[in-house]
Each structure stands twice: as structure tokens, then as C-alpha cells.
């Protein structure tokens, strides 16, 4: 059992390691809908990757990064409200993906595995992709942690202090795009945002500082991976949804913990 589940555990831990910090920023900045938009875009990346016959991992990353950059561009122009832009981009990206799939008569695509994930099919190459993305994101977070926190707490004050808030907003969105692209294939496009939000929301109840919240969120994500894979092994449930359900149970239990003052 250990030999069979070890690659899945390692993949889950790698995703949890970056979902914790980025999920915390998503919760702080109230960007949950942005994560859903990128999840829709990941399906477009998958479809275009198959249609153009390029590496699917590369197609997922490029598509998520392109959509994040496009959103920042629209926000800067201030044409319509952000939630309206997100709604337009989310459903447009999904529609492009579905139209692209209609041209793939010669390719059999298991959409269920991409919609709900297939954590039990992780290969050595997948682990390299996950931990490469995790290393890049964690390295950027370590370098730019203070300005990212400052621009998250108060963008206007950070701008007065000379921090380029637009750059850090773009950087954060690009990193979230990488997390979505890395986790989508293994957790699922429909629920990857949940793995970003739920552990961070649970950690917020317990943590005293932003740094504590990031670490606790990653730990909660790792515990949810262990419990979810155990459920999947013993009761033959889908691995990705089982992980998210485990995280949701931990979130409910965290609400029973007295609020720290």
C-alpha cells in the first residue's frame, strides 16, 4: 500500500506546501472567484495543449499565466468591475476549451479525471513538475514576502511607502496561476480552488500572525491529503474530492477552537 500511495502522498504534500501560502493571500484579498476563473482557464489550456499537440503541463501553466496577466490589464484600464471581468473571463475560457475539445475527434480525453482530479495516477515526471513549481513559488514568496504582505494589508499605504502595488498584485496572480496549473491535473479543476481556500480559512481561526497562518494552512492541507487518500484507499472514493472533504471537516472542527485575541 505504501509503495502505491507514496507518489500520491508526495504530490499532495507538494501541492499543499504552495496552496497554504497562496491560499492565505486568496483569503486575505478575497480573491476566491479569481481562483475559480483560473480553474476554468486550466481546462482551456488542457484543450489547446491537446489541439496544438504541445506538452500539457506547459500549456496549463502558460494559459493560467496569460489569463492572470489579462485580468491585471483589464483591472488597470478600469473598464468594468473586477467581478464582472472574472465572470466574463471564466466562462469565455471554459467555452474556448469546450469548443477546442470538439475538434479532437481523434483524441480520447477523460474529462472526469481533469474535472475532479486523479491523484492516484502520479508519475515521477509529475512529481518533478509539482516540486519544480512549488520551489519557484516558495522562492518568490521568500524574496517578496514583506512587500506582498504590505500591499495586501493596505494597498494605498504601501503605495505611499514606495511599493509598486500593481507589480505585486500581478506577481501574486501569476503565482496563483502556477498553483492552479500544478494542482489541477491531480486535484481537479472544479475543486482546486477549495484546496486553496479551505485550509487557509481554517488556519485563520487558529493563527496569530500571517506567518503562522501560512504554515498552519500548509499543515492542514497535508493532513487533509493523508486523510483523503486513506478514505480513497479504504472506501474507493475519488481521491481529489476526498481530500477536499477532509479539509472541509478540519475547517468545521477549527471553528470549535476559541477565537484567539
TrEMBL record:
GO biological process: one example: transmembrane transport
Segments passing through the bilayer: 6-28, 48-72, 84-107, 128-148, 168-201, 213-233, 239-257
Keyword annotations from UniProtKB, A to Z: Cell inner membrane, Cell membrane, Ion transport, Membrane, Transmembrane, Transmembrane helix, Transport, Zinc, Zinc transport
CC annotations in GO: ATP-binding cassette (ABC) transporter complex
Entry's localization field: Cell inner membrane; Cell membrane
UniProt entry tagged with the keyword Zinc-finger: no
Organism domain of life: Bacteria
InterPro entries cross-referenced by the UniProt entry: ABC_BtuC-like (IPR037294), ABC_TroCD (IPR001626)
Main location: membrane
Pfam families (UniProt xref): ABC-3
SUPFAM superfamilies: ABC transporter involved in vitamin B12 uptake, BtuC
Membrane topology: Multi-pass membrane protein
Function: Involved in the high-affinity zinc uptake transport system.
Record family assignment: Belongs to the ABC-3 integral membrane protein family.
Protein name: High-affinity zinc uptake system membrane protein ZnuB
Organism classification: Bacteria, Pseudomonadati, Pseudomonadota, Gammaproteobacteria, Vibrionales
Amino acid at each position: 500500500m505504501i509503495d502505491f500511495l507514496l507518489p500520491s502522498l508526495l504530490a499532495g504534500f507538494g501541492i499543499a506546501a504552495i496552496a497554504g501560502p497562496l491560499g492565505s493571500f486568496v483569503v486575505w484579498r478575497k480573491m476566491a472567484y479569481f481562483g475559480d476563473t483560473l480553474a476554468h482557464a486550466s481546462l482551456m489550456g488542457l484543450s489547446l495543449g491537446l489541439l496544438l499537440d504541445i506538452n500539457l503541463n506547459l500549456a496549463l501553466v502558460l494559459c493560467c499565466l496569460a489569463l492572470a496577466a489579462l485580468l491585471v490589464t483589464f483591472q488597470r484600464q478600469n473598464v468594468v468591475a473586477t467581478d464582472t471581468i472574472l465572470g466574463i473571463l471564466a466562462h469565455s475560457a471554459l467555452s474556448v476549451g469546450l469548443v477546442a475539445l470538439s475538434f479532437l475527434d481523434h483524441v480520447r480525453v477523460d474529462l472526469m479525471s481533469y474535472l475532479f482530479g486523479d491523484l492516484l495516477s502520479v508519475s515521477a515526471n509529475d512529481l518533478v513538475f509539482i516540486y519544480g513549481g512549488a520551489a519557484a513559488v516558495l522562492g518568490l514568496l521568500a524574496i517578496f514576502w514583506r512587500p506582498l504582505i504590505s500591499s495586501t494589508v493596505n494597498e494605498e499605504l504601501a503605495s505611499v511607502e514606495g511599493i509598486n502595488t500593481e507589480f505585486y498584485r500581478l506577481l501574486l496572480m501569476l503565482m496563483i496561476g502556477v498553483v492552479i496549473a500544478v494542482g489541477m491535473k491531480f486535484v481537479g479543476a472544479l475543486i482546486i480552488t477549495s484546496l486553496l481556500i479551505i485550509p487557509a480559512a481554517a488556519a485563520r481561526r487558529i493563527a496569530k500572525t500571517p506567518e503562522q497562518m501560512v504554515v498552519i494552512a500548509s499543515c492542514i492541507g497535508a493532513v487533509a491529503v493523508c486523510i483523503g487518500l486513506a478514505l480513497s484507499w479504504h472506501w474507493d472514493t475519488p481521491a481529489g474530492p476526498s481530500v477536499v472533504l477532509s479539509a472541509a471537516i478540519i475547517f468545521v472542527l477549527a471553528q470549535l477552537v476559541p477565537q484567539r485575541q
